[in-house]
Amino acid sequence: MSQDLAKRKAAEAALRYVVQGEMLGVGTGSTVNHFIDLLAERHFDIAAAVSSSEASTERLRAHGFKVIDLNAAGPLSVYVDGADESNHQLQLIKGGGAALTREKIIAGASAVFVCIADESKLVDTLGAFPLPVEVLPMARSFVARELVKLGGEPVLRANVITDNGNPIIDVRGLRITDPRALETAINTIPGVVTVGLFAHRPADRLILGSPSGVREVVAR
Ligand SMILES: O=C[C@H](O)[C@H](O)[C@H](O)COP(=O)(O)O
Prior knowledge:
The structure is a single chain. With 220 residues, this protein is α/β, with parallel strands linked by helices. The chain has 2 domains: 2-124 and 200-217, Rossmann fold; 131-196, ACT domain (Alpha-Beta Plaits, 2-Layer Sandwich), CATH 3.30.70.260. It contains 7 helices and 13 strands. The strands form 3 sheets. The chain has a 6-stranded mixed beta sheet with strand order 2-1-3-6-12-13. It has a 4-stranded antiparallel beta sheet with strand order 8-9-7-10. It has a 3-stranded antiparallel beta sheet with strand order 4-5-11, with helices on one face. Strand 1 (23-26), helix 2 and strand 2 (48-51) form a beta-alpha-beta unit. The longest helix is centred in the N-terminal third of the chain and has 13 residues, at 2-14.
């Protein structure tokens, strides 16, 4: 419950980045769900949202927000999304909710990526949270073997297919000391759609909530 309150506080603090009348990139997850609900509760007047998942699209539309395709939106000024882990450089692990591919695309298309999370998500070294990798179905076993060569323990995520129709492999046992190198290494395995490591495109702001308040972390 207190973790949920922390998420809501982080979401609330991100509202100050929203520009009324403009388009807004909106991510996925329980923290973002608070953000979407707050946008509605506080009567924010955005032109439209670009959403990173079917779940967020449904929630936005249920509140009466217009949701458009990224192709119709062009570059976005702000993207608000959660994370499973962040290091002090604001490099992230994302994809616990299986939305990593669309999230990485929208983050790449946005000028400012505001990450919202509860304070437990800030770590010194990424990797305690299993690293999600979305793969094409026919490449599942091959990619898993390649991930073992990189030092990980791949586990197919049970009963999950992404919005893009692909399975996810969660990689345990990694201590990610060079996130950019690992992101590149996994990206170059044939069959990988997206790795949930956001190192080449980290967040620009990290808002961490706790039951008693929020703090904003600047990249070291
Ligand atoms: O695929 C899901 C996303 O990367 C989420 O932003 C991430 O899992 C954090 O989710 P939550 O806000 O529920 O902790």
